[in-house]
Structure formats: C-alpha cells, structure tokens
Predict the 3D structure of the following.
Amino acid sequence: MTQPNKTQKNGYQNSPFLTHGLNRAGLFAVALLAGCLMSGTTLANEQIARDQQCFKCHAIDSKKKAPSFRTIAQRSDASEIKDVVRNGITSLFGQEKMPANRRISESDLNALTQWILAQ
Ligand code: HEC
C-alpha cells in the first residue's frame, strides 16, 4: 500500500474504531475466549465462590474465619456441603456462623460444591 494522502490519514485518525481499533478489540476477544477454554471449568467455578463472597470467610488452603475449602473437602460430602451452603449454620444461641445462600441457583450450587470437593 502506498502512503495515504493527507485526507485519508485524517480519515483513519477520526475513525479508530472502524480500522485497527476494531481489529484489536476482536483479537482481544479471541485471546480471552481461548484463555477461558484452556483453563477449563476450574476457573469458572472458583468465580462462583468469588461472586458469592465465600472468600470473605473461607480460603482454599488456610483457615480464615472459617475452615479452608481443602479441609471441608476432606471431611464433607457433596450433600453436606450443599446443605450448609444453601441453609447456613446457626449456633444454638441463634448466632449465624455460616450464612445461608437462598438465592444461589441449583446449577451454581452444584458447580460450587464440585469445586470445593476438588480442592
Ligand atoms: C460470613 C462468613 C462466611 C461466608 C461469607 C461463607 N462462610 Fe462458609 N462457613 C463460615 C463459618 C464460620 C463456618 C463454620 C461454621 C461451624 O462449623 O460452626 C462455615 C462453614 C462452611 C461449610 C461447612 C464446613 C464443615 O464444617 O464441613 C461449608 C461447606 C461452607 N462454609 C461453604 C461456604 C461457601 C461455598 C460459601 C460461599 C457461598 C461460604 N461458605 C461463605 C463462614 C462463612
């Protein structure tokens, strides 16, 4: 391609979105998609835990306010985990220890439970 004349050059500068701007956004989208596909479902399920604020009190492999997900995975099975996450744990004195999550969808709850068990 020959050098664009002055008018064409201004044209490019005035519409970055229609020229390389769009290409860059497109490349970025492809890279992002590839990244998601490669990392598989682990990341997606961890994202549910993040979205549900589980990491405020739990960590994957160290005790915070609550037992680590690794400890939980060792001593609990799927139905126990699902029950606790859905209904929470309240102490005898009515103090909420593990908050209930009534609004989490069944499929997110299943994915989250499988993710915890895999830690
Ligand atoms: C406000 C703090 C807090 C948040 C947020 C929280 N938890 Fe908990 N969780 C706790 C505490 C504290 C316990 C321990 C309760 C006990 O054993 O008395 C617990 C216990 C649990 C247990 C049972 C562990 C066992 O004893 O086997 C599971 C499973 C669990 N949490 C999963 C989750 C998940 C998943 C999320 C996100 C949806 C979450 N928690 C969010 C505080 C929290």
